[in-house]
TrEMBL record:
It is a peptidoglycan-anchor. Residues 143-160 have a biased composition (Polar residues). It comes from the Bacteria. Residues 125-200 are annotated as: Disordered. Pfam families: Gram_pos_anchor, Rib. The keyword NAD does not apply. This is Gram-positive cocci surface proteins LPxTG domain-containing protein. It comes from Gemella haemolysans M341.
Length: 223
């Protein structure tokens, strides 16, 4: 039995050769399987066809503990690798290592059959599992955006932008010039866009006429 596997009645019966017409009457105590090695035998009472009963002893051997061989893809498995995964009790030895699977692809591979010899010369076989794991591939890190190079000055310093010149403020004492009125030459009328010059001349003539009428009326009254 493999280490840790309990022994059942069916396990014992499979290892008893019963004569034709005979039958098993009883099965004795079964040993534990927590540790590897040769265990106490299991007594089995058999009744023969003639009614006679006999007792036979069924030997119990608990096989060594095995652990899986785990390698990455492409890593070859050697016989020494397999042997290291068989926990042999004192006095036991590996006499044969079976076919070792390849590791070109990941996954569970066929177990390796290992033959082990006991100190008394009896032999048992164990199966060593083999698992191939995929290689870990580091994800590629995308390149970040590149920072544009800054222009350099003569001494390797970054040139500073020029400060725009402030517009000059007009002097407080400076007053805008008032355009001079046009001066009329002799015999020439000045006609600005507003027509003010002609109107003033007409008003002046009208005022003289009224003044003359007022003076004449005053003289008549005095007489």
């Amino acid at each position: 039995k493999n280490i840790g596997d309990p022994i059942t009645n069916e396990d014992v019966e499979k290892n008893v050769k019963i004569p034709e017409g005979g039958k098993i009457v009883s099965i004795g105590d079964k040993p534990g399987t927590d540790t590897p090695g040769v265990k106490p035998v299991v007594p089995v009472v058999i009744e023969l066809p003639n009614g006679k009963q006999i007792t036979v002893e069924v030997p119990v051997i608990v096989k060594p503990k095995v652990t899986p061989v785990v390698v990455k893809v492409g890593t070859p498995v050697t016989e020494e690798d397999v042997k290291k995964h068989v926990d042999l009790p004192e006095g036991w030895k590996v006499t044969k290592v079976g076919e070792i699977p390849t590791t070109a692809t990941p996954g569970a591979k066929p177990s390796v059959t290992v033959e082990v010899e006991l100190p008394d010369g009896r032999k048992v076989t164990v199966e060593v599992p083999v698992t191939v794991t995929p290689k870990h591939v580091e994800p590629s890190t995308p390149a970040g955006p590149t920072t544009p190079e800054q222009p350099q000055g003569e001494n390797g310093n970054k040139p500073q932008p020029e400060t725009p010149a402030k517009p000059e403020k007009p002097s407080e004492n400076t007053k805008p010039e008032v355009p001079k009125a046009p001066v009329a030459k002799a015999g020439e009328k000045v006609l600005p866009n507003t027509g003010i010059a002609d109107n003033n001349s007409a008003l002046a003539g009208l005022g003289l006429a009224i003044l003359g009428l007022a003076t004449a009326a005053r003289r008549r009254k005095q007489k």
